[in-house]
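Bumping with the actual sequence this time:
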Amino acid sequence: MRERPRPDQPRGNGRPPQRGQARPPSGGRSGPPRDRDRSAERADGERGRPHPLLPPATRTFWSSARNQVANPGLLFDRFAPEAAVFGDRTDATPRRDFLREVIAAAERLAKDALAEQILVRWEATVRAAGAEPCSVELESRLVSGLGAHGPLEIGFRFDRLGFPVLPGSGLKGVARAYAHLVERRDESDPDFLAVFGRVPRSGEAHEVGQAGALVFFDAYPEPGWRLELDVMTPHYPDYYSGKEPPTPWQNPNPITFLAVAPGTRYRLAIGLRQGASDPDGRLRQLALGWLRNGLAQLGFGAKTTSGYGVFRNRE
């Protein structure tokens, strides 16, 4: 192992390093530093690079294809302009303009043949698991995935094809919450235990755990679904960031985000786990009733206490 030279020890050029002396650029090259890329800076100080992290060939292709994109999830997660990331200002609204592009892409996808084909494939999958699909209609706006990671401070949940799906794990949680909070059922109830299973409590053996007999599938929107713009305005931004108490002189901070429009219809399905038994379909009907009532009374997604994510409990 080579010994690290002492500060006063001569180096390869025979001269000891001088304190305060500027070091040459990396790689041993000398000369003036490279000019900083100022292509992003405009006269008015606006951060204007559209997509600074994309390779040049990708940027060239994107500039010609962006108006034909039919995957709003890809657009939202990967192609947000830099100005949209930093938010709107009083004299420009780059984030709102970008979200309108996402909404336009969603409209193209909702009218595309893929919207019908994905439902045909989904229905074949759930019926193979013994499920009987049904539809529910959204009564208020729905927001899902607000805390998801992404380029903007407010996220949104899309699947890989760009559909605003409702995850089956979340639907199962809504059904369980309704059964527990409204009907006062718990793991001592045989039907509750059969539908949702249980995890071992502290001190219990792992073998005590039990998987539920049913599978809650992801819910897909029917063709014609729409996205809308919505806004929330925290009036105490410094309070929420932990800087100071909620004082009246703080500046409100409007935040624009995406929401599924009221009137959108979703397809629900609850099937049997492989190896489980429900010969008369009683458990599936019971769980579906819990789910429909939960969506109508508890809601789904974020901001349910403000009236978001409420469904109509009828066909």
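The tokens above came from a reply further down the thread. Confidence is low (pLDDT under 50) at residues 24-46.
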